[in-house]
Amino acid sequence: MGHVPIKLIYSKRRTIALMVNRRGEVIVRAPRRAPLKFIEDLVEKRRDWIQQALARVTMGPIRQFSVREKLEFKLLAQERAEYFASLMGVEFKKLTVRNTVSRWGSCSRAGNISFSLRLILAPPEILDYVIVHELAHLKHHNHSNSFWAMVETYCPKAKQKRKWLRDNGEKFVL
User: Fold this and answer.
1) Chain centroid, CA 130 distance in Å
2) What does DSSP say about strands 94-98 and 112-116: parallel, antiparallel, or unpaired?
3) Smallest Cα–Cα separation from 135: which of 93, 101, 165?
4) Does the pLDDT at position 43 exceed 60?
5) Which of 7, 62, 89, 134 has the most CB atoms lying inside 10 A of its own CB?
6) Residues 83 and 120 grouped into a single domain
7) By residue range, what is the domain housing residue 98?
8) Same domain, 88 and 134
9) pLDDT score, position 111
């Protein structure tokens, strides 16, 4: 792929992840047994996406949020999560907001949920979708049909919101 260096990191993971970080480094994380040819083919297949991601990294300054803005966002996320948790009949233990790049949210088996600060830039219905998605993991620790049915029950048009995140999320660089 031209003269763009690729950093390859092997680990215990099961899937291959391709990312471009804020410094413009292209990183591939792959399972230890993934064939190099497969990884090379994937990078070649995603060449256009990589070039677009590299262009975005150099597009301008990174958005900084004040402590107050971060706190207000965390309070909003907490309020929305409590609202949806009560509707869905689930309980979470702790909510955190982090400046993550690779995930919009996460849910631990211990019942803690976490959200990316990048969601501060998203429309409210997208934040609600991510919250419902993570809360559904408290009942379904996978992405089974039951999981998606629960998400759709409490967040109508979840598929469209998920697609919106895929199509627009990479614009939310902090």
Assistant:
1) 9
2) parallel
3) 93
4) yes
5) 134
6) yes
7) 67-168
8) yes
9) 94
- The per-residue pLDDT for 168 is 82
Q: Which of 174, 168, 2 is nearest to 26 (CA)?
A: 2
Q: Is residue 62 part of a domain?
A: no
Residue 113 tokens, joined: 């949920």
Count of the separate structural domains present in the chain:
2
Do 48 and 78 share a domain, yes or no? no
Tokens 């047994």 identify what position?
33
What end-to-end distance do the CA atoms of the chain give, in Å?
A: 27
Neighbours of 22 (CB within 10 A): 10
Its pTM stands at 0.68
Contacts 24+ apart (CB under 8 A), 161-169: 161/125, 161/126, 161/129, 162/129, 164/126, 165/104, 165/122, 165/126, 165/129, 165/130, 169/104, 169/118, 169/122
Q: Is the domain of 157 the same as that of 112?
A: yes
φ, ψ at 160 (rounded to 5°): -65, -40
Contact 11, 31 (CB under 8 A): yes
Residue with tokens 């990191």: 9
Note the pLDDT tens digit of each residue in 58-90.
Answer: 555 566 788 999 999 999 999 999 999 999 999
Asked whether residue 1 is domain-assigned, the answer is: no
With the C-alpha atoms ordered 143, 74, 118, 168, is the resulting torsion angle positive or negative? positive
Distance CA 99, CA 91 (A): 24
